[in-house]
Amino acid sequence: MQALGSAKIFRQRRLGIAVYARGGVRGNILNYRRFRRMYCFICKNKHLFKFLDLGDQPPSDAFLRKEDLERPEAKYPLSLYFCEECTLVQIGFVVDPKILFRDYVYTTGMNNSLRANFKALVETLVSRYALTKSDFVIDIGSNDGTLLANYTPHGVNVLGIDPSSASTLAKDKGIPTEVDFFNERTALRVERKYGKAKVITATNVFAHVNDLDSFMRGITAVLREDGVFVSESGYLLDMVLTLGYDAIYHEHLRYYSLRPLKALFERFGMEVFDVERIQSHSGSIRVYAAFNGVHPTKASVGELLALEEKKGLYARQTFVEFARRVYAHRDALTVLLADVKKSGKRIVGIGAPAKGNTLLNFCGIIPETVNCILEKSALKIGLFTPGMHIPVVGEERLFAEQPEYALILAWNIAPELMSKLRQKGFKGKFIIPFPRVKIV
């Protein structure tokens, strides 16, 4: 075990973005320096505008065991910046990916809406690109193999690439998986071993990548000349419209709109030829890219670019106003919760998604306010939330104790959750935090 404070600091000098990692066991405190130099991930512009500071926060998926609670907890800066050159919105500080993703408690298969989304996506890809048993596809950030399992009825050759502990679940299902981060080195190894892929997917991972240039070089190395790269990421416009700042946490390095993505692909000899807005994660963007000239560009690309400009996604003032609304939202939520507690009522949380911890930590919601978080995932039950240390317990406690209020942290699926919990017998009221705080 390394001594307390012996934090190892990594800095990615080429991009000018500070990358931090702490040594020793989870719980060692992080000593960090705040670097002033920063470059845009996409265009390398040095002059970025900081518009939102959510304070120092622990990694959102770093749930704690009871024995960890008395140990110092690592926290990292969580701020957002706007690039006025390419209009990318990005995080200011990057935590070492090995801290965030090696011991990972999130599994895709637990999310009903994501399972449905992935099934529909695979059906679309098989049909649109006439995938057969002779074709090879790759899923980057494949997690427990939920997406790739949908190819089984079609006999398509598949490969998952994922560095996290969730990859063990995929391998147990018989899904071929390379346990590693995807980058140029990994791609070259995969290309030698398996050949080039006709379709590559990266769902809810493309915004997580630290070395974006190496990732893109990897895509161009392992993608067939006629192949398609499909990414799904949280969509900046939806985050602005719903005020969903809880989507801001250390795993999410970039908050994409279409314009900077288009610029990124152009740097690597590729082009965006189709785009869709989808409902996943409170609003996401699905982007189809290929080598230049392979596919005709659909009208959807120009239409979305025009909408983004109309909605102000390329203007600094939009994000100044977004930050003002974020701080006002924190005030409204904390006042509501305080009033409920003053009246002698009990509040619990529903769901323990990573984004819920951004909300809990930014708003300073402590166990005395929200007594516990109710969860179905066995991977989280018995643990404590990072930062605020609220206990995570089994969902059955909701029905046994009947608290007066339930704060829905997984608010993007609030209608589905409320319906199920009512059917199971919950009689209390729901607090929904976004797009505005309300009681149902």
Could you explain the architecture of this structure?
The protein has 440 residues and is α/β, with parallel strands linked by helices. The protein has two domains: 207 residues, Rossmann fold (3-Layer(aba) Sandwich), CATH 3.40.50.150; 107 residues, Rossmann fold (3-Layer(aba) Sandwich), CATH 3.40.50.720. Helix content is 31%, strand content 23%. It has 13 helices and 20 strands. Helix 13 links the parallel strand 18 and strand 19. The N terminus is likely disordered.
Using the alpha-carbon principal axes, give the shape: globular
Percent of residues in helices: 25-40%
Largest sheet strand order: 9-8-7-10-11-14-13
**CATH architecture assignment name of the largest domain:** 3-Layer(aba) Sandwich
What is the count of helical runs? 13
Q: What is the terminal-to-terminal distance?
A: 49 Å
Give the total of beta strands: 20
How would you sum up the major sheet? 7 strands, mixed
Query: Strand portion, in percent?
Result: 15-25%
CATH class of the largest domain: Alpha Beta
CATH topology of the largest domain: Rossmann fold
Compute the CA-based radius of gyration: 22 Å
Mean pLDDT: 89
Tally of distinct domains: 2
Provide the CATH superfamily of the largest domain: Vaccinia Virus protein VP39
Low-confidence stretches: 1-36
Give the structural class: alpha/beta
